Amino acid sequence: MTKKIAFQGELGAYGHQACAETRPDFEPFPCATFDDAMEAVRSGTADLGMIAVENSTYGRVADVHALLPKSGLHIVDEAFVRVHVNLLGVPGATVADVKDAHGHPVILPQCSNFLKENGITGRVSSDNARAAREVAEGGDKSQGALASELAADIYGLDVLARQIEDHSNNTTRFLVMARDTDLTRRGSGEMMTSFIFRVRNIPAALYKAMGGFATNGVNMTKLESYMVGSEFTATEFYSEIEGHPDDANVKLAMEELDYFTDYVKLMGVFPAAPIRQSLR
């Protein structure tokens, strides 16, 4: 039986593109929300989840970082997907015909220059692929969608303008999540370790907790903070570092982190994507 990989959005979404490019042997399983995609993995409906976490133009996908700690899932891989934004329209339409372009709030800022230059108003949609489907169903030449060429193929739309993103390196990073993880797994190259922690309520706790990574030569590539529940006094941090938990320097750094925190949760250990080398 073909394994399934869940993603947020409808068929033709950029999450679908990420699944097709990096897990072509899995059947894409569309979900309305990120939480639904994670639940599909938790329940066993899907084997993996393809979860967008950040875009090089827009920044982080805030909702996801709030969902990660309570997801009950593990990060087992990462994928960087080049995002080309296209203006799609009904057959026969031209760019000049389009008055409104519908897309997810994350994608609208990624092509703001093109929209402004062509006098097109960006309209918020819950999903780029849904926008493409609704434009196809509406049959109105004045309405366009900001989506992938995959979405154009699926919904029978014309690509009116290709690669209209403001920045040529527009890339979205996805985390691949699973119910279980193998912490002994080693890739052929560098490994990444991700974890969530909450510092103790003592002066300079965060500074001291981070000190162990610096003194042990562990490169921290990400540190994101977010509030816990509705309490302004409780802040959790999501972090990613280069290395494996079994590495001697990582062990020492994590031991020091543990001393200055009251909560540490390992989220995943996964091979570093090859593209990371070019990002340095």
UniProtKB/TrEMBL annotation:
Molecular function (Gene Ontology), one example: prephenate dehydratase activity
Record's protein name: prephenate dehydratase
Entries under Gene3D superfamilies matching the protein: 3.30.70.260, Periplasmic binding protein-like II
Domain Prephenate dehydratase: start-end pairs: 4-179
Annotated site, Essential for prephenate dehydratase activity, chain positions: 172
A GO BP entry: L-phenylalanine biosynthetic process
Pathway(s) served: Amino-acid biosynthesis; L-phenylalanine biosynthesis; phenylpyruvate from prephenate: step 1/1
Signal peptide feature range: none
EC primary class: lyase
Keywords: Amino-acid biosynthesis, Aromatic amino acid biosynthesis, Lyase, Phenylalanine biosynthesis
Claim: Kinase is one of the keywords in the record: no
